[in-house]
Amino acid sequence: MALCVMPKGALPTLIDKLLETQKVVGPKRVPRGPDSSQFGFGEIKTPDELELDCPYTILPPKHWLLPRDEKLFTFKLGPQPEVTPVIEAEPTVFFGVHPPDIAGIACLDEAMADRNPDPNYLIRRDQITIVGTEISPEEYRYAKFLGNDVPAAGYDLFLTDIGDAYVCDVATDKGQAIVDLVETRPATADDIAAVEAVRQKTMAEAEDILDVNVRLLPLTMTKAADSGVWKTHAEPCFRCGSCNLVCPTCYCFNVTDVVEPNLTAGARVRTWDGCMLDPFATVAGGESFREEARQRLLHRVSRKFHYQYTKYGHPHCTGCGRCVRTCVAGINQFDAINDLLAEQAEGVPHGR
Amino acid sequence: MVAEPTTLYLPQFATVLETEPMTATERYVKIAVDSGESLGHKPGQFVQVSVLGIGEAPISVSSAPTADPTFELVVRNVGNVTAAIHRLSVGAKIGIRGPFGNGFNVDSLKGKDLLFVCGGIGLVPARSLIRYCLNNRSDFGEFTIFFGCKSPQERLFLSELEEWGSRPDVTFRETVDRPHPDWSGHVGVITTLFPEIQIASPKDTVAIIVGPPIMYRFVLIECLNAGIDEEHIVMSLERHMKCGVGKCGHCQINQKYVCLDGPVFTYAEARHLKEAI
Questions:
Q1: Which of B63, B82, B100 is the last residue in one of the domains?
Q2: Cβ distance of A251 and B78 shorter than 8 Å
C-alpha cells in the first residue's frame, strides 16, 4: 500500500496505544530478567520489554497460533453428558516477526485452511495482526537459500530500522490502522535506499550462504528414500523431538482428555506432537511404521521439501535454522540434503 | 475466551444399544446416533469414538449402511479408550465424529467377481462391505470369502460365518494358523487357502484384503500370481488417526493422509508408498 517513516521515539507510544485495545506479543528476554541472552515470543506488558534487536527467538510465534495445550471443547460427565466448544481467540498483534517466521505463519495458514478448515486456528488467526522486522545476520544462512531473507507477503506491516527511524511498509488495512496511531511522514528515496543498505549490511555479515536451487528439491526427495544419507545423519538422533517443537511449520498434534479433580468435568485438549517422537506412527497392534531414526528424519525432511512442497507449491521449511541450532545431537538437515544432492550428482553413495 | 459453534472436533452423542463380548479381546457394540439420523457411512469408513474423560480412538464401522441411526462396531481392547468402550453398558452415552475416510468404492465392484481375504480383526471393516454386497448379491459375480485367525478362539461373527458357509452363492473358506483341539477345519496361514479355489477370471476379479500388516505382503503375492490386476487389489490400511480430518499428521504415509485419502487404497496406489505396509 504505502511506505512511511516513523521516528524511533514514537515506538513506546505506539506500543502503549496498541496495549489499550489488544494483546501484544513480541520478542522479550526469557526466562526473565535483563541479563538473559535468550529471547522468546511473550506477552509484552510494557514497551521496554520489547526486544526488537534480538537476533532470533528460541521458538517462532507458533505457540500463540497453535497453543501447546489447546482446549477444543469442555465436557460434563454423567448419564447426560454435555460438550461445549471452546475457541480461544482475542485481538493480538505479533510485533517483531522476522521474514522466516512470517513465511512459517503462511505455511500454517494454508495447512489449517486446507480440506477441513480448522475453526480453532482460523478464528484465532483472523484476530492476529503481524508486524514484521528485518532478519538478523545469524538467521541469514538458510533463510536466504529459501528466499525468506526479505519479506515477500504475509505481513500487515513491516518495519526496517534505519538508525533513528523505522521505515514502515504498510501492506494491509490492519497495518495502516497501526501506523495511524502515531505521527509518521511519507518515505523518501533516501529512506528506501537506507532500507536497501540495511539488507546489504545483513547479507555482508552472514556466513556460508547455501547455494542450492530449492526448486530441484522435490524431485531430489522423490529419489531419496533408499539413500544411506538418512542413516548417517540420523545416527546420533536421541528422538527428543526438539526439531519438531521449534519448527515454525510443524503442526502435528495429539488429542487427549483432561479431567478435573472433581471427576465430573474436563476438557479435550490438543497438544503438540512430533514425528521424531516414539509412539507417533505406532498403531493399535504395536507396529510402528517408522521405527528407525533414519525413517523419521526422511519423513520430516520430506514433509518440508517434498510432500507439503508439492501440495502447496513452495517449501514448508522457512530457513529459520532453529532445528539446526536446537539439535543436541548436532544433526543438520541441510547437510543431509547437501549430501543427498552430491550423491545424486556424482552417482556415488554418500551415506552408509 | 470466545466460545463459538464448531463441529470439526466436537462429537455428536450416541447411545449404546447392545454390547457383548465376541472373543477374549473383542467386544461387539451396537450404537444409535441420538439425533435420530443415519450415520450415513459407506462400507470401509471409520468413526472417531469418544468416551468423555478417557479420550477418542478411530474405529472401523462393521455394519453395512442403513437408513436408521444404528451402526455396529467391534472393538479390540488394546488401549485406554478401547478398554473404556469395553466397560460401557447398555444406555451409556458415547461421542461420535465422522464417518471419515474414503471407504470402499462399491460402484467399481459391480459386475466383478469378489475375493475377500480377511485376517483376524480385519474381518471387522471388511464385514461392512461383505454385508453390503450380500444385500445386493445379484450385482456381483463369483463371491469368495477367506477368513484366517491365529486360533479358533479369535473367530468373530460366528453365526454369520456359518451362514456364509452354507450359502450356495458364496464360497467361504476358513483357516486357523496352528492346530487346535477345538478345530477340525483347515490349518495354516491364510495364503494356504488360495490353492483351495479356482479364480476363474482373474481379470474380472477384485480382491479385498484386510488384515494385520504382516499379512499383506504374502497375500499380495498370491493375488498377483493369480493374475489379478494391481488396480483390482484393494486394501484397507490401519493407522492411529488422532483427528480424522487431515491435520494431526499421525496417519501420514508419504503424501497421503490415511484418514482422508484412505484407509482404502488399491495396490496400484499403495505400491508407490514407502511405509504403507
A1: B100
A2: no
Domain of residue B114 covers: 106-270
Q: What is the pLDDT of residues A154-165, one digit of tens each?
A: 999 999 999 999
State how far the Cα of B274 lies from the Cα of B254, in Å rounded to an integer. Answer: 7
Pairwise CA distance, residues A244 & A301, whole Å: 11
Residue of chain A with shortest Cα separation from B120: A285
pLDDT digits (tens, 9 = 90+) for B5-49: 467 999 999 999 999 999 999 999 999 999 999 999 999 999 999
- Are B276 and B258 within 8 A, CB to CB? no
Interface probe for B, chosen from A124, A257, A269 (most Cβ of B below 10 Å), is A257
Mutate to test the interface with B, among A82, A83, A88, A310 (most CBs of B within 10 A): A83
Residues B250 and B184 in one domain: yes
State whether B39 and B115 are in the same domain. no
Q: What is the pLDDT of residues A177-196, one digit of tens each?
A: 999 999 999 999 999 999 99
- Cα of A68 to nearest chain B Cα, Å: 13
Distance from CA of B54 to the nearest CA of A (A): 6
Q: B171-176 and B186-187 as β-strands: parallel, antiparallel, unpaired?
A: parallel
Sheet containing A185-186: order of strands: A38-43, A23-30, A92-97, A128-133, A157-161, A165-170, A2-7, A185-186
Q: Are residues B137 and B265 in the same domain?
A: yes
The answer to whether residue B163 is domain-embedded is yes
pLDDT at res. B7: 77
User: Which residue is listed with cell 498377483?
Assistant: B224
For B10, the closest of A85, A256, A307 (CB atoms) is A85
- Looking at B54, B82, B100, which one is the last position of a domain? B100
Please, which residues 233-252 of chain B have a Cβ atom closer than 8 Å to chain A?
238-240, 242-243, 245-250, 252
Q: Is there a single domain that holds both residue B96 and residue B116?
A: no
Residue B79: inside a domain: yes
What CATH number is associated with residue B110?
3.40.50.80
Q: Does B83 touch chain A (CB under 8 A)?
A: no
